[in-house]
Structure formats: C-alpha cells, structure tokens
Amino acid sequence: MAKKSGNPVLSAPIGANEVIIDSKNYKRFLTPVVDGEPRKMGLWPQHPMKSQLRAEVAGSFDIPLIPESEWADRLAQKIKDQSQLSDIRNQGMFGKRIPSRDQDGEPYCWAHSSTSAALIARAVNNQPYADLSAFAVACMIKNYRSEGGWSEESLKFIESRGIPTSKTWPQQSKSRANDKPETWAEAKENRFTPEWMNLTSGNKALIKQQLVTCLLLGIPCTTDYSWWSHAIIALDLVSLSPFRIRIWNSWGDSWSEGGTGILEASKAIPDDSQAPRVITLAA
Amino acid sequence: MKYVCLLLLFAAPAWGQKVTLPPEVKVQPGRLAAVTVEWEGDDLKYVTPPELDVFREFDPDVKKVRLRLIGYAAGKYTIVAVAAKSDPLVANKARLSEFATCIVVVGTPAPPVPPDPPVKVSVPNLVGHDWATAMTAVTLLNLRLAQLEDTSGTVKSQQPPAGTSVSAGSTIVVTMSTTPPVDPAPIPLPGLRVMIVEESKERDRLLPGQQAAILGKQVRDYLNAKCVKEGMQPAYWIIDKDVPVDGLEKHWRDVFARPRKSLPWLIVSNGKTGYEGELPKNLDETMAILKKHGGE
Q1: Which residues of B touch A81 (CB under 8 A)?
Q2: Where in the sequence is the domain holding A188, given as residue range(s)?
Q3: Using an 8 Å Cβ cutoff, are A253 and A100 in contact?
Q4: What angle do CA A24, A28, A30 make, to 5 degrees?
Q5: Of A17, A272, B20, B22, which alpha carbon lies 20 to 30 A from B91's?
Q6: Residue B148's CATH number
Q7: pLDDT at B1 over 70
Q8: Nearest-CA distance from A217 to chain B in Å?
Q9: Considering its fold, how many domains does chain B have in total?
Q10: Minimal CA–CA distance to A12: which of A96, A86, A90, A119?
C-alpha cells in the first residue's frame, strides 16, 4: 500500500491509510488483492460498439467550464465547507458512511461505477440509503456472462430500467431467478434522468477541465481508465499541485481506507467519463 | 346714485307690451352677476351704465335675455329696459311698455378670511405592517404615504418616526423590507421539514454561501439533527428542479409544486411558521432562517 507523498500547499484531508496511486507505483494495482482475494477490473478497451453507443446517447457536456484560475479558491472553499462528495458519502447512510460496492472477482467494475454514482446522487438529495445492486445491471447487460464493459453502457441501462436494491436482487448474485417483474418495478425508482453528460474523451486537457468542473460543483463522475482497465467513480478534487482526485473503488471497504483512494497526475485523468447529475426520487 | 337715461320716442298705453327686471342685484367687485330680462312685445331696448361690463348670453327663449355683468368699483348702478309693440291701428306707430329698472349694487370687497390653523396629527407606527395596511392607517389620519423601494414585504423603517406631530396632509416616507413576509407554514405537518430546490447544471453561478448550503456539512448536520424523521430519514430534500417527484409523499409533491420566483429556492416549515424564498447568498443567513423555525 502506497503512502502519501509530496507536500501540497492546498489539499483536502487524505486518510492515513488511503492509497495514492501515481506513475511510479501504479503497476502494483494492476493485479490487486484485497483481504487475500484477487480482485478484477473489467473495463473493456475501446471497441467499435462503443462508438455506436456514444452516437445513441450523445449527451454532450453542457455546463460552463470553471476557469483554472478559480480552481484553488473554489477548492479551498469546499475544503472549508466540507462540501465534497466524500463528505456527503460519509454521512449518507442514516448518518453513517455509505458502504462501498464489491464486485467480488467479477469484471463488473463498469456497472459498479454507475451504481456508486447513483448512491452518491441519492445522498446529495438526502434520499434514504438503498442497497443498490450493481450485479443486476451487469447481468442483464451481459446476459450473466463474466465480461467487461464500460461505464457509459451501464448508465444507459440505468437511465432506461433503473437499479434494483438487494431486496429483489441480492448483492453479488448472478441467479437468473432475480430477474422478476417486481425486481424491475423496484428498479424504476432508481433511474438516472437523461440529463447525464459525456465528458470529452480523446482530449486529455479538456477532459481534465470538465472533470474538475464537475467535482467542484458536486457532480459525481464515472471514470474509465485504460491504464488500469478499470472503471470507478471520482468524488473529490483533492489538490492541484500535485493534481490529485479522490476515487471510490468497487473492491469493498477493506481496500485502501473505506474504499476510497487517491489518483495522482496523469493517472488521475480518465480516458472516458460521464457525469450523471439527476436521479429519480423515491422516498 | 347714478342714472342712465333711455330716450323714448313713444308714449306708453299697454297693448300687450311688457318688460320685467329683478329690482336689485348685489355683487362683489370683480365677480359675475346675472340679470334676466323677461319681456313681451315686438322689440326690446335696454341700457346699461358704462361702469359695468355687460355680456349678453344666448337664450333659446327669445322672450328672455340673460345679461352677465361685472362691476369693479363699489356703487349702485341702474339698468333700464322697455318693450315696444306695433300699433295695429296706426301705421309706423308703436306703443311702449312701462320702464323697468334694476339696481346693481357693487359692494365693497370682503376682508380676507384668515386660513384655518393647520390640524396636527400624530404619526402612527407603520413598522412591521405591509403596504396595504400602512396605506389604510395613514389615509384615515389624512396623511400620505410614499416608499423608497417597491411595495412588497413589510415596512422596515419610516420617516418621520411614530409619535411625531405633523400637519395633516404630510407625507410619511417608508422603507420596505426586501425579505418576503413570513408565511404560514408551507407544510401543514408538525416538525421541521426543509426543501431546497436547485438546478445542478447552474451550480457554477451560485455564490459560495449557496453552494455550502446545498452541499456543505454545516447545513446537513443541522438538518440531520433537527428535522423530524420520516421513517429513518430526516425530513429534508435537496433536489434538482428537473427531477420527477412522483415517488414522493403528497406533502412533498405539494411543496415542490409551489411557485418559485428563482433558484435555488428554500422552503422551511415547522408546521406553524415557515419561510419560502430565495436561498440566501450567505450561509449565516440560511442558518439563521433554519434556526428561527427549527430552534438552536
């Protein structure tokens, strides 16, 4: 486990055991082991199908970029107000921390990233905690195959059908018996509205600006990293020098510290990213 | 007494000719007086003194002549009139009526009447009242009301202050509060309930105090501690204006449907009192509103 390095002037608090992944140590996280068990990632490389999907859902980035000159002041304000998404996660389950999803050896990171974004979006609304089941999304999309994918694919599914909770689709279950009408009736209560945005893939400088804009505005972003073959969710901007963001992984709370870690510099800039802003309400 | 003579050419036995004048008319110098001459016959002659300016008004009744006259110097003046009628027995001969006279008395100017002393009234206390109530209060006291800003909200201050003695007709200038009046509780259920409606797409335009209210720990800690519980969850929502609210209970759907003048919009209710208005730009103001209705 890597220890934090550097001495940033302006930085959100970093947990004592929270991992920091940078260009020097990243290879350690390509074959992860958590609690003695190997973990998988599951991000597919770029694929012709993805271009087709992008054409179908093309929700472009439509909020003004926050100028880089304002980043430091806005970050300082968020640290002072404790208004980062991880602050909201830390009390989002009836005053306690929302538990991390755990993909449990399946290559379903791309479904867990969107599911974690749904948990955060609900917490921002102060919706009651719901134990959302990412396996339901992945199993339906992949017809129960253990197969990789990408976050955008799962977002599109969640927009149309929603995510059930563990009441109707238990966590980490791949049983076909879960696929019942009542499961999807419940899932409809947890749908992203069509307002979610695609960040601009293929332009590292621009996608970084868009990512920072979202994080400073409290909008969660699913982030797909080719170097890691992994999809996760970005919660916070942590510091600008070095550039660090806090991500929420789907390897359970045992990974790093409470399931979150820090990505630094080039390792923090995703190859693809989506920003779901609004989720339906269910009391 | 001054006289004006009328030259008469004929004697006057009566054959239906007649003229009548009011015997006396009194008028103040420079003021208009009216004299009506009523007559019968074929012709009417009248003479007025040069000290009077006389105008003849049109009268549809030809047997009436209405004279309007003004005298400027005090005195008595005589108007003389006579009517004539042709003699049916003798050609080119007419018979005259009796002379009629009217004495016009132009009096001396009345001394000026001193004005009534101004009525004094005590300025009422208008602070805390809305515009309509303040207007009613000052109108009843024969005062006037003017405002420095718009007429929404309640009176924040007034000039002159309450209790000051002023003349009737004076103007009271008030400053209205910019804070909307406190409405009755927006949610008719006991316990603190709060809703903030925002537009997540527009968060970059919000001031730091508004962003802190939407996402920050201070407001959420307070709401988690003070809001009544609905199930296990503290009763507050921080939601986007575009979100479908079909899944919420009716009282939340109702409060979401209430009109909003801007975004982000804050609604606070404790079942008895409440607040509906723009989310304050300053976090301290938001906390003050919450504590006013939810307690310290």
Answers
A1: 208, 211-212, 215-218, 283
A2: 26-230+254-275
A3: yes
A4: 110
A5: B20
A6: 3.30.10.20
A7: no
A8: 6
A9: 3
A10: A86
What are the tens digits of pLDDT across the range A120-158? 999 999 999 999 999 999 999 999 999 999 899 999 999
Q: How many domains does chain A have?
A: 1
CB–CB contact B212 A95 (8 Å): no
The pLDDT tens digits of the residues spanning A70-85 come to 999 999 999 999 999 9
**B126 and B82 in one domain?**
no
Residue A54 belongs to some domain of the structure? yes
Of B204, B223, B232, the CB nearest to A64: B204
Residue B98 lies in a domain: yes
Structural domain contains residue A73: yes
B141 within a domain of the structure (yes/no): yes
Regarding whether B200 and B278 lie in a shared domain, the answer is yes
Closest Cα of chain A to B164: distance in Å? 49
pLDDT at A57: 52
Q: Which of B212, B230, B243 sits opposite A281 (nearest CB)?
A: B243
The answer to whether residue B3 sits within a structural domain is no
Residue A37 lies in a domain: yes
Domain residues for B289? 193-294
